[in-house]
Design a protein that fits this description.
globular; 8 helices; 2 strands; about 270 residues
Length: about 270
């Protein structure tokens, strides 16, 4: 494997970083530090974030088309019945595990109260909730196109293990741009990166990690209440980063078992 694949990957990340930095500067002028969760929830910030993610994704697709000289279909745009069933099983397991995890925390008194709430009681409240979920979709599309799709196809010479390790490492490192990284968060990112990378390598379809990734992100909002709004559950106290990291490790193990049940160790990529 020569230097060119690494240069392609570097160019893709530089394009992403350039877009992310420009968006962060603009958002900082409007709402403050993007690394503070409370500053991410206004409609203007959400729309700017969605636009930035889609722009970064299109930049990567342009690199794929005009520098790599590969069609977009190389990312794996198909979704056969097995892929769909595997992805939907993972999505259902994600939400079921999240709710069960909250119940276990309450039963073991790791949290003192667990309430079921109504996240939106009117159309006026539902609109920003829907907007937030759409923005999450743009984030997931961008991250999977770059971290799983583009990176994986430039690392084919390394085989499945090499692809999985490198794509997970870049996935973790890129999150330092927009998050205040602590050990618990890094553990969560590593667990997610390995799980999503495995989903892509086994299925060969970019839609499988996209659906799984979207499920984990929406579970963070709708179940774990990380944004402080739009959740169906409220805990006292709020879940800690350490507790969410424990959940993510358990989640990774169970989703990996589901993937292996559907695909075995027959890699479509690598």
């Amino acid at each position: 494997m020569g230097i060119w694949p690494w240069l392609h990957i570097l160019a893709a990340y530089l394009a992403y970083i350039a877009v992310a930095l420009l968006a962060s500067l603009l958002i900082r002028r409007i709402a403050g530090d993007l690394k503070e969760m409370n500053n991410r929830n206004s409609p203007r910030v959400l729309l700017l974030g969605a636009a930035a993610n889609l722009l970064a994704m299109f930049a990567v697709l342009l690199l794929l088309l005009f520098w790599d000289r590969q069609p977009i279909t190389v990312l794996g745009l198909g979704l056969n019945a097995r892929d769909l069933l595997a992805a939907l099983s993972g999505v259902a397991a994600t939400f079921a595990l999240a709710v069960i995890f909250l119940a276990v925390l309450r039963q073991t008194q790791r949290i003192t109260a667990l309430e079921i709430t109504r996240p939106a009681s009117s159309a006026a409240q539902a609109a920003p909730m829907a907007l937030g979920l759409l923005v999450l979709a743009s984030v997931v599309l961008q991250e999977e196109t770059l971290n799983r799709g583009y990176v994986s196809h430039n690392l084919l010479a390394l085989g499945p293990a090499g692809i999985l390790l490198i794509s997970t490492a870049t996935f973790v490192l890129i999150h330092f741009l927009t998050n205040r990284a602590k050990l618990a968060q890094v553990i969560s990112w590593v667990a997610s990166g390995l799980t999503l990378g495995l989903a892509y390598l086994l299925s060969g379809s970019i839609w499988v990690p996209i659906l799984l990734h979207y499920a984990t992100d929406t579970a963070n909002v709708l179940v774990f209440n990380i944004t402080g709004q739009f959740s169906f559950f409220k805990t006292t106290p709020a879940l800690s980063e350490g507790q969410r990291a424990v959940f993510r490790v358990v989640y990774a193990l169970i989703i990996t078992a589901i993937l292996l049940a559907f695909y075995g160790l027959n890699f479509k990529i690598g």
